[in-house]
Amino acid sequence: MHGTQQIERPLPGFVGGTLDRVDHVRTNPALLAQAFADPAARRLVLEGLEPVEAEGHLLLEPIGAGAQIADHVLLGVDPQARPIFARLVTDLGPNLVPTPRSRAIAGLIPAEEVALYGAARSLVHWHARHPFCSVCGGSTRPVKAGWSRRCEACGAEHFPRTDPVVIMLAEHEGRGLLGRQHSWPEGRYSALAGFVEPGETIEEAVAREIYEEAGVRVHSVRYVMSQPWPFPSSLMIACVAQAQDDALRIDATEIEHAFWCDADGVRAAMAGDSSAPFIAPPQMAVAWHLLDHWLATVVSAGASA
Question: Which residues are in the Nudix hydrolase domain (predicted)?
Fold first, then answer.
C-alpha cells in the first residue's frame, strides 16, 4: 500500500525562521555578555530599515570591538550556533513604509533569512518609535537584550507590539469574495482584511470586517495559516468563512470594489493569465497562499463531494 504523496507548497514571506530565540539568554546579563563577545557572533546589516543582500544572502558582519550591548537587540542563535544581533538606531530616516526593495527581498534570499529580516525590521522600528514611556512620559531604555524597554522614571516595562490582522476569504456556492483598496495598482484584488479590535475573537473580527466592508454575513469561520508582516508589526491571520448569501453592499470608504470570483477565475489569476478577471496578490503575501489553499482544499473538496 502506497502512502499519499504530499505536495510541498511554498511559504509566505517572513515565515520559516530557524533562529533559537534563547529567552534564557535575554534575561541573563552574564550569558548575554558572553553571546555578544562570542567571536562567532554576527550583526545583521541594515540601511535604516532596508535589507542589505550580497550573493543571495543577507549581509552579516562581525561585531566591532567598540560596540555596546545596550545598542543592540539579540535576535537569537542560528543553526550554526552564531548569536545574531541587530543594531538599534534612533533615526530611521524616511524609509518607514514598505519599499520595493524590502518587498523584493523575499525573492532574493532563503526563506529563513527573510524571516530573520522581518523580525529585525519590526524590532528596530519599534525601538525607534518608543523612546518615551506611555505611562509617565519619561525616557525608556532597552532591557532583556532588546526585547522590552523600561521607563527610567516610573519603571514601567513596555514590550514590542504585534497587531493582529484577519485576512479572509468569504465563500458562497463555489465562489470567493475579493476586494481592492483604492490605492492598489489597477486590476489588483485580494482577500478582505482588517485589524482585530480589543475584546474580539478572531472569528468575530472576520465576521465584522466582511460585513463592514462588503455587507455580507458569514459563519463557520476556519483558520488557515498566519504570517508575520513587518510593515511595521502585523500578524496576518488567514481564514475562510461561509457567506449566508452573495448580496454585496460595499463601504466605499473602506474598499473601492468587490466581486465574487469562481475557481476558474482565481486559478487563472494565480497563474498570471492575462485574461484573468483580476491580478493576484504577490506570492510573498499570505493572501496568495489563502487563495491557493482555497483552490487546493475547499474547492476541490466541494467538486469531489
Answer: 160-285
